[in-house]
Description:
Largest sheet: 6 strands, mixed
Number of strands: 14
CATH class of the largest domain: Alpha Beta
Strand content: 5-15%
CATH architecture of the largest domain: Alpha-Beta Complex
Number of helices: 18
Helix content: 40-55%
Shape: globular
Structural class: alpha/beta
Amino acid sequence: MASGPDAFVSDPRYTEEFARARRLVLGHPRRWRVIYHYDGDGVASASGAVRALTRLGYPVQATALVGVERERVAALTGATSGPILVVDTGSSWLDVFARHPHPVVILDHHRYPGVPQPPPLPEHVAFVNPLDWGVDGMSEMSASTLTWLFTVFLDPTNWDNAPWGLSGAIADRQHVGGFRGLNATLVEEAVRRSVLVRRRGLALFGAGLGAALAHSIDPFFRGLSGRPEAADAFLRSIGLDPATPPADLAEPDSARLATALKSRLAESGVAPEFAAILDQERWWVPSLGRDAEELANLQNACGRAGTPGIGIAFALGDLRAAGRAQSAEESWRSGILNGLRRLEDGGVNALRFLRWFASPDTTLAGTQAGLAMNYLLPPDRPVFVFSELGSEPIRLSARGTLKQVGRGLDLSAVCRTAAASVGGEGGGHRVASGATIPAGTREAFLAAADRALEEQAHGAASGFA
Length: 465
C-alpha cells in the first residue's frame, strides 16, 4: 500500500501510476540517473527527487537538459547502465525511454500526443502525468509539485520537500492568482504540517525599497524597473524613504505603496491578475527563513546560469552552494532587467497572429518573453523569442496568457506543428512552450506558426485578446 495521500484524486489512474513508479524506485536500490529540465521548475523537481533518493541511501547522478533534445536524450539513456528518473520533461520521448533496458520513471506535466491516453509502455517504464487523471499540468500542478507528491508516496517524511515543490510551481508561474487544484491541496497539507506558513507582504526583495523596486522583474514596472534614480524619486513622491527595508514597512505605508504601484501598472495596461502578484498571499518557509518566491528565483537563476547543479546542492543544504546561488540570482536578475528594458525601449516585431523578438540571452529568453507578455505587450496575441548562435540549432520559446488559452490558444500544438514543418521538434504547455529548429529556418517557422495560430483564432472576433 502506498504511503502517500491516496485520497487526493479520485481517478484510479492517479494511484495506479504512482504505485507503479513507487514499485520501480523501491525495487531497485542502486545508482539512479535523474534527468531534468534546466529551468526553475526542473531544478526544483530534481532537488526534491535527489533529496528523496539520497534518503533511501541511493547514489544519484543528476543531468540537466537545456532544450527539446531527442538526440541527447537517446545518447544519455544509451550511456546509462542503470535506472533513470526523469522530471519536468520526457513526455515527448516515451518511445526512447521504452527502449532503455533498465527501469525508467517519468514525472512530467507537459502535454503529449494522445493525451490523456499514453501509449502502451513496458512494465519497467512508469509514466506519471497529471493530465491522465484530470489535473491540468499547466495551471494546477507543476513538475516540482508532482515530484514532491511522488516523494511523499515514497515516504511521508518527504513532506519537507515542500520548499522545492512550491518554488518550482512559482518559477512556472502557477502561483498567479493563488494556487489552484492539486497544487492548492498540497499547500494546504504543508501549512497544516507547519512546513509552510501563509503571510502577507509585497513582492519586493532587497536591502531597501529603492533597490527592491529598481530590481523588480515580477512585477516589472515601466519607467522604474532597471532605473534606480527613477525608483527612488517615485518613492519619495509618495512619502517613503528608499532606504527603508521592505520588511520594515508599517502596514499603512505598505498599503499606500501597493496602491500607488498597482495604479502605475494599470496605467501601463497590465492585466489585474498580474498586478495582483504585487501583494497577493505569500508563502514563508520557516526551515530556511526565506520566502518561497526567493527560492524560486535562486533555483531558476542557477539553471539559467548554466549551473543547475548548484541549485540542487543548495536544496541539499550546501552552504557554499547557497552563496553561489545568490551570486547567480543577481546576474540572472540583471540580465532579465536589461532584456526587458531593451524591449521597453525598442519594441518587438509583429505578424498577423503573433509577436516576436530575438534575444542574445539564450538561457534567459523564455523568462524575458513571459514577463514581456505580462507587463509590456498588448494581450491580443502571443509572443515568440528566438536565440540563435551561428550554425547551431535555434532555440525558441513562446508565451501567452491564460485568457488567450481560454479563447483557443494552444502554443504546445503550434510549436510542435511549426517546428516539425522545418525539421525541428517542439512542445510544452498551451500557455508556454518551446522548440528547437535547424539554423536558418526562423522565417519559415514564423510563417508556419502564424498560420497555425490563425486556425486556432478562427471564430474569435477579437483574436486571442
